[in-house]
Design a protein that fits this description.
The protein is an alpha+beta fold and about 850 residues long. About 15% of the residues lie in helices and about 25% in strands. The protein has ten helices and 40 strands. The strands form nine sheets. Strands 9, 13, 14, 17, 18, 22, 24, 25 and 27 form a nine-stranded mixed sheet that branches. Strands 31-30-33-32-34-35-36-40 form an eight-stranded mixed sheet, with helices on both faces. Strands 19-29-28-23-26 form a five-stranded mixed sheet, with no helix packed on it. Helix 6 crosses helix 9. It is elongated.
């Protein structure tokens, strides 16, 4: 090996014959090009001036008087060099240095006489110092025969004790995405006028960094940040080719391929995995990838059965509880679901909305082929052997899509393939690891694309490690992940959930079903003024757990639409459990009427909350409501008389009279037996020829109706309206006395009148002489009819079955994504389709 020292002329020596430029040399080291302050004086190492002065050369190729020998007299070839004692030395004419270059002269310091010059073929006797000695050798004639690249501190490099001239560039060189790396480049040069197999390794400057194509050839796509000194900051995963600056004499360049590895997540959940450094899909401790636990119960189940459980329909729902096929009697959340063979599987396509994607970027088949023997590519939390309980647990499955796409969320056949044929890779918890290149059944690579779900909460660094022999780490890269119960990710507002208790006038945060020790979730102040907030109001006939399930389904499906804003649900006291037919509804009219009355009473609490939210998110609040939740939402907006508190209001299958908004909406004739001549107070509130109840109502800048003229439940709604006044609760009407409530007419009765008893009259007495808002097209008034959405028509196809009334919250995302995409458009959160 040719150990490279700087050469100087006599002007570089001081009166003590020492080097006078403050540069220090140590045996066995090389002067790194990436540390210019150690080479040049301070005036040249300072901040770059606009027009920097030229740095004067210390020497030229033909001026090498003299090279300082750090060991005193030069080390020469055995049996053919200078011999020296403290009093004499001999300098044969055939002397060569250890590189085979002829020694032309020596400068040494003789006692009492200063520096002397010795020529070949001479000897000297007398006192002298063996240090310093300077040698003048024949100029080396160098020929570049290759290049060597390495990572200082990881790879052997020239000048190091573990480097040999037989070393070739380590293959592969692997570096982590988004982390600074130093690459050292050397031209391997044979000394043609010296010994054979002796080489010089002058360090090289770098010129470019470009992406490699699939064949490993350089493209013109510049990537990363590269300094001439080899400081490289990778900004894209995959193979990157670094090229040195051309040799001044020959123009030759060297190239090396770096394999940049990265763990990729869709952090902003827009469906695009942006692998760039400047993109939105990078994580940090301050900005982890947040995702929810897969601890719900997505299953196929029988629904809408006739009495005695016959003639049932089937649907995928998020149930209150469920088991596995092999453990039916035991509660099994989706993250622990197993099939009949006790193999971890995904229970149904609905459950796929609880799975995110993970890409292993930069680990290509070409890279795997050149990994050293006994190399392992592993995933862990960086705590193998020393588990940290704060780290989460996840389950991995191989992705069905060969390109790692997101069709498993939107395409039925892809989803079916994903749950049926894509193998379970394993569970990764604190202290555990998964080897991705372990051979199983002839397959030695698990692939670069996975989907995964959360099993237990926590926050940690998902770590990809490439190592050799289990201890020699070749490279590592990480991604920050935080897993939470979904109830820690959105606000749950309520005015009460017990139908026997009147709703509160002010909404408060719900505390039910939170994990132990977890506080009720409340967002912090919004970062900007354009942060959107969507608030949803549920419908009637819902149990407490169902209210949360519907809200969480909406949260998830908006998430997969790329929604970047905040979300909350508004709960109000409604009874649940009615599953009967229209015939059964005639026997339960009081059930529906009482719920409707509670809905009207819940509006003040919603009104107050909307004002509060609009104060925090001015002009950015969007409101949606489902079924009878439209009574709550509509009345809350009607009461918001101090300006609009909602940007867009979307009514889903509204169970409220269409005449309340538009007196011109289609009339519905009451059956003869039900028509007592009650005035249409919804269309004309509350006297004849007056405008509708919600006439010219404010509260929202825009109203949009999502309707289904064949909606099963809204047809039942017609039946309930026919039964008003509700005689089972002693309400009655006569043309002479109007509405009243009685324990026995004509005595002991209570007159009911507008506006004093409006809520009670609408809930129990006044029949709707129209169809429900959610079953009627072209409802005008405050509604923007060009924006209406027909849910019976394709591509929504909600149908006429009972389950279709809540179809947007049921089934799977493959069938319902089109609805949520349209809602994002309605809410002006994405461009018009």
């Amino acid at each position: 090996m040719f150990l490279q020292y700087f050469v100087f002329n006599s002007n570089n020596f001081n009166e003590s014959s020492s080097i006078a430029n403050s540069v220090t040399f140590q045996s066995g080291t090389f002067l790194e090009m990436n540390a210019p302050p150690g080479v040049f004086s301070a005036s040249y190492a300072s901040a770059h001036p606009t027009s920097p002065p030229a740095i004067p050369p210390w020497t030229t190729a033909s001026n090498s008087l003299w090279i300082a020998s750090p060991t005193g007299f030069p080390v020469t070839s055995s049996g053919n060099g200078v011999t020296a004692t403290e009093t004499s030395f001999s300098f044969p004419s055939t002397s060569k240095n250890l590189y085979g270059l002829s020694l032309l002269s020596l400068v040494y310091e003789a006692n009492n006489t200063g520096c002397e010059v010795a020529c070949p073929g001479t000897s000297y006797s007398g006192g002298f110092d063996t240090w310093p000695v300077y040698q003048n050798v024949a100029q080396p004639v160098l020929q570049t025969v290759g290049y060597y690249f390495g990572i200082p501190g990881v790879s052997p490099v020239p000048g190091g004790t573990n480097f040999s001239t037989t070393n070739t560039t380590p293959s592969p060189l692997i570096v982590p995405f988004g982390q600074p790396t130093t690459i050292a480049a050397f031209a391997k040069q044979a000394v043609t006028n010296g010994f054979t197999n002796v080489f010089a390794y002058p360090q090289q400057y770098f010129a470019t960094a470009v992406l490699a194509d699939t064949n490993g050839n350089p493209t013109t796509n510049v990537t990363g940040i590269l300094s001439p000194y080899g400081d490289f900051f990778p900004t894209q995963p995959g193979p990157v080719i670094l090229t040195t600056m051309p040799d001044a004499a020959t123009g030759a360049t060297g190239q090396v391929t770096l394999n940049v590895i990265k763990l990729q997540l869709d952090v902003n959940h827009d469906g695009v995995m942006d692998t760039s450094f400047a993109g939105p899909d990078n994580t940090s401790a301050a900005r982890p990838f947040q995702f929810w636990l897969n601890n719900d119960y997505d299953r196929w189940n029988e629904v809408d059965c006739l009495p005695l459980g016959v003639d049932c329909d089937m649907e995928q729902d998020d149930l209150q509880f469920a088991g596995s096929l092999s453990m039916v009697a035991r509660l099994t959340g989706d993250c622990n679901y197993v099939n009949e063979e006790n193999v971890r599987t995904i229970p149904c396509t609905r459950d796929l909305e609880d799975y995110a994607r993970l890409w292993i970027c930069g680990i290509t088949t070409n890279l795997l082929a050149v990994l050293p023997t006994n190399s392992a590519v592993t995933l862990s939390w960086g705590d193998v052997g020393s588990p940290k309980p704060v780290n989460p647990t996840i389950d991995l499955f191989a992705a069905a899509e060969t390109d790692g796409g997101s069709a498993y969320l939107t395409d039925g056949p892809t989803a079916t393939n994903q749950i049926g044929y894509s193998p379970y890779v394993g569970r990764l918890g604190p202290g555990q690891s998964i080897v991705l290149n372990a051979c199983e059944a002839g397959n030695c690579w698990r692939g670069g694309y996975f989907i995964w779900c959360g099993v237990s909460n926590g926050m940690g660094n998902l770590t990809l490690t490439v190592s050799q022999g289990g201890t020699n780490i070749l490279a590592q890269t990480t991604a920050f992940i935080q897993l939470l119960d979904i109830k820690q990710m959105y606000e749950r507002w309520t005015v009460g959930d017990d139908p026997a208790v009147a709703p509160a006038s002010t909404a408060y945060l719900a505390a039910n079903d939170l994990p132990p020790g977890v506080q009720r979730f409340l967002y912090g102040p919004p970062v900007g003024t354009n942060t959107p907030y969507i608030l949803h109001v549920h419908g009637s006939n819902m149990q407490l757990w169902e209210k949360d399930r519907f809200a969480e389904t909406m949260y998830k499906r908006l998430y997969w639409q790329g929604y970047q804003g905040r979300f909350g649900s508004f709960r109000w006291p409604t009874a649940g459990g009615f599953t009967g037919s229209a015939t059964d509804a005639t026997l339960n009219s009081a059930f529906f009427d009482k719920i409707q009355y509670t809905a009207w009473q819940s509006a003040p609490g919603l009104k107050t909350l909307l004002a509060q939210l609009n104060n925090e998110y001015p002009g950015q609040v969007r409101l949606s409501s489902h079924s009878m939740g439209n009574v709550v939402a509509g009345e809350a907006l009607r009461q918001s008389t101090n300006g609009n508190v909602v940007s867009v209001y979307a009514s889903f299958q509204g169970a409220v009279p269409s005449h309340s908004y538009d007196a011109g909406a289609t009339n519905r004739a009451l059956p003869t037996w039900a028509d007592a001549g009650e005035p249409d107070t919804h269309a004309h509130y509350w006297t004849s020829n007056s405008p509708p109840y919600f006439y010219n109502v404010g509260g929202a800048s825009s109203y949009v109706n999502y309707f289904n003229a064949q909606d099963y439940v809204l047809n039942i709604w017609n039946t309930d309206e026919n039964l008003k006044p509700d005689s089972s609760l002693t309400y009655a009407f006569t043309t002479s006395d109007g509405y009243y409530k009685s324990g026995g007419y004509p005595t002991n009765y209570i007159d009911l009148s507008f506006p004093t008893n409006t809520y009670e009259l609408f809930a129990f007495c006044v029949p709707a002489r129209c169809y429900a808002l959610g079953a009627q097209s072209n409802v005008a008034g405050v509604f923007f009819t060009p924006g209406q959405v027909d849910l019976f028509a394709s591509p929504y196809s909600f149908g006429s079955a009972h389950k279709g009334h809540s179809a947007e919250f049921r089934s799977d995302n493959m069938n319902r994504a089109v609805f949520w995409s349209q809602l994002m458009t309605t809410f002006k959160l994405k461009p018009t389709q």
